[in-house]
Write a structure and sequence with these properties.
alpha+beta, five-stranded mixed sheet, 5 strands
Length: 145
């Protein structure tokens, strides 16, 4: 009477552990993507409050997307872009089709958006108070679609 496990029993246990590990890793990847998207949304929601303060101080949105200055929302857009894992940001730029993050302003409006990790969607905030997920970039009037 030999005690122990047969080779077949050990292989079955190893296969089951491998299957369980792959399921757990797939779930973790999904959670990581959701966490990244939450960071993007939090950074852009923060920029909306900063832009409101900027407007209260100067009664204009001109320069709210500027690269330099202490009262701009550039840092929040950059942080959201970094959370998305991209370094491409266009501030006050005309080419909005090839970027993963952008911020544009006029005297009466602004819009900032960053591409989310979960696909082809963007998270957009604007001067009208919108903070939403969309498949399109902000319009020429700098309002989230």
């Amino acid at each position: 009477m030999n005690k122990g496990f047969t080779l077949i029993e050990l292989l079955v246990v190893v296969a089951i552990i491998g299957i369980l590990a792959s399921v757990v890793l797939a779930s973790l990847n999904s959670a990581r993507t959701k966490g990244t998207d939450a960071a993007i949304k939090a950074n852009l929601a923060n920029t909306r409050a900063q832009a409101a303060i900027f407007y209260d101080i100067g009664s204009t949105y001109n320069g709210v997307c500027a690269v330099a200055g202490t009262a701009t929302i550039n840092a929040g857009v950059q942080a959201a872009s970094t959370a998305a894992g991209t370094g491409t940001v266009v501030l006050d730029g005309a080419n909005q089709t090839t970027t993963t993050a952008n911020c544009n302003d006029t005297a009466i409006s602004y819009a900032a958006s960053v591409k989310l990790k979960n696909g082809n969607n963007y998270f957009c905030v604007d001067s009208a108070g919108a903070a939403k997920e969309t498949t399109l970039l902000p319009t020429a009037t700098y309002i989230c679609p």
